[in-house]
Amino acid sequence: MTETAYHILGEERPGRWLVSCDHASNRVPDWLGGGSLGIAPEDMARHIAYDVGAAGVTRRLAERLDAPAILSDFSRLVIDPNRGEGDPTLLMRLYDGTIIPANRHADAAELEKRMAALYRPYHAAYAELAARRPDTVICAVHSFTPCLRGRARRPWPVGILYSHRDTRLALPLIAALAAEGLNVGDNEPYSGHLDGDAIDRHALAPGRPNVLIELRNDLIAHEDGQIAWAERLAPVLERVLAASGL
Asked: What are the tens digits of pLDDT across the range 219-240?
C-alpha cells in the first residue's frame, strides 16, 4: 500500500527549531471507506477531524524561524498521531457528540493497518528530522475550538501546554506572551502531558527542549490570521530560547 503520511517542508533550513503539526489535515485515504469515515462534510471541517488553521501557522512559523516543519497528512479520526500506541483514544469512535461510523467496529487488524500505513511512517520521519542536529528544539503547533458542545466558551486566544517533566521553555514563553497583554492558557484548555504522545516521544524521552502552542481556531481559520500569529510568535520564541541558555 503506497500512502502519504506526512509532508516535510524546508528540510534544508539550518535553524534549531523543528516545527510540527500533528493534526494538519482532515484527509481520509481512499482505501478507507472510499475516502470517507461516514460522517458529514461539515463534521470533517470541524476540530474533531483536524486542527483548523494549524497547518498554515506551522508553515509560516517554520519559514520565519528558518527551520524545517513536519505536518501529518491524515485526519486524526483515521488514527491520532498525537497519542501513544496503547492509548484508547488512538482511534476515536465518538468525538464531541459525533459518532464515527468507520471506527465503531474497527478491530485490532484494522488498527494495525492504519498504524502501519500512517502512524508509524509519520513518527519515523519525525524522529529522523528531529535527529538532524543534536540541539534540536521542538515547537508543536495545535489549535482548539472556542467551545465544545454543551460547554463554556474558552477565553484564551492562545494556550501553552507542557509536561511537568520539562518546563524550561514553556513557563518563560507563558510569561513573555502574558507580558504582551495576552490571556495565555497555562496548560489550558487541557493538560500538556500525555504518556506516549508526540512531545513525550520526540522531546521528553530524548531530552529535547520543547513547547506546545495551542491557538484558538477562530483566530487562525483564515490566512491573514495564520500569518499574523506566526509573525507574532516567532520573535518571542527566538527571544525565549536565547534567554534560556539551552
From this structure: 999 999 999 999 999 999 999 9
In a 13 Å sphere around the CA of 193, the CA atoms on its Cβ side amount to: 9
Reference 95, options 140, 153, 155, 50; nearest CA is: 50
SS3 at position 77:
coil
Q: Kindly report the CATH class assigned to 6-244.
A: alpha beta
Pick the closest to residue 26 from 86, 88, 84, 98 (CA basis): 98
DSSP letters, 165-203, are: TB-TTHHHHHHHHHHTT--EEES-SS-S--TTSHHIIII
The x, y and z cell numbers of residue 219, run together, are 483566530
Copy the grid coordinates of residue 62: 517554520
Q: What average pLDDT does range 62-84 have in this prediction? A: 97
Cα dihedral 134/54/177/201 (nearest 10): -40
What's the grid cell of residue 16?
534549531
pLDDT value for 149: 67
Cα separation of 9 and 19, whole Å? 10
Q: How far apart are the first and last CA of the chain?
A: 42
Q: pLDDT tens-digit profile of 126-137? A: 999 999 999 999
Task: Locate 218 and state its grid cell.
Answer: 477562530
Helix/strand/coil for 75: coil
The rounded mean pLDDT for the chain is 95
pTM, entire model: 0.95
Find, among 230, 227, 194, 214, the residue nearest to 83 by Cα: 194
Coil, strand or helix: which one is 222? coil
